[in-house]
Design brief:
membrane; PH-domain like; alpha+beta; seven-stranded antiparallel beta sheet; 2 domains; about 190 residues; transmembrane helix; two-stranded antiparallel ribbon; elongated; about 30% helix; PH domain-containing protein
């Protein structure tokens, strides 16, 4: 039979754990923070570079005088997600603040589309510049279930632009598609 050793003798023989090497741990943390800062700086430089490539895009129109007096066809509150080159859902446009995601208040009248973005640049799309509206599932930086985004195509300068919006009440999207398509047909009919 084995003899039992009292527990206090076993505890006395144990060595305490090694003390953590704080200098190595701090070095790793500082190195990781420098790497994160460097990646952020590279992303920022890429954003600026893309903006300089798109510097030929004309300034955005501002809301005309008397716009608020016109009859509102539709209004919407929700999110503005991005603007891209029409037909290329990943080619984000960052010039003039079009790449900045924000809250949005849209107002559609016979004069055009007023885009009010708290915290970002507001802009106005004249009715003659509107081309179409459709429901889609994605635009640069945002993918939703089928039909989750309202995409409005409009002309600015010599470029066609797709802008993506999501209403707080997505059931409003089909009415917007119908109203914009009707407005573009009416505008095209009067232009001829």
């Amino acid at each position: 039979m084995t003899s039992l050793i009292p527990l206090h003798h076993l505890a006395a023989e144990q060595k305490s754990a090694e003390v953590t090497d704080w200098s190595a741990r701090i070095s790793w943390v500082v190195g990781l923070l420098v790497l994160i800062a460097f990646v952020y700086w590279l992303m920022r430089q890429g954003w600026k570079w893309r903006g300089s490539l798109q510097s030929g895009l004309p300034e955005l129109d501002s809301t005309p005088e008397g716009f608020a007096d016109g009859e509102k066809l539709l209004t919407l509150t929700g999110r503005y997600h991005a603007s891209t080159t029409a037909g290329q859902w990943l080619d984000r446009i960052v010039a003039h603040g079009l790449g900045t995601r924000s809250r949005v208040e849209l107002t559609l009248t016979d004069q055009g589309l007023d885009v009010v973005r708290p915290g970002a640049a507001d802009f106005f799309v004249p009715a003659a510049a509107l081309r179409e509206a459709r429901l889609d599932k994605g635009i640069a930086g945002k993918v939703l279930p089928e039909g989750g985004l309202l995409i409005i195509t409009w002309a600015h300068g010599d470029k066609l632009i797709d802008s993506g919006f999501r209403s707080d009440r997505s059931a409003e999207h089909p009415a917007w598609v119908e109203a914009i398509d009707q407005l573009t047909r009416t505008t095209e009919g009067t232009a001829r």
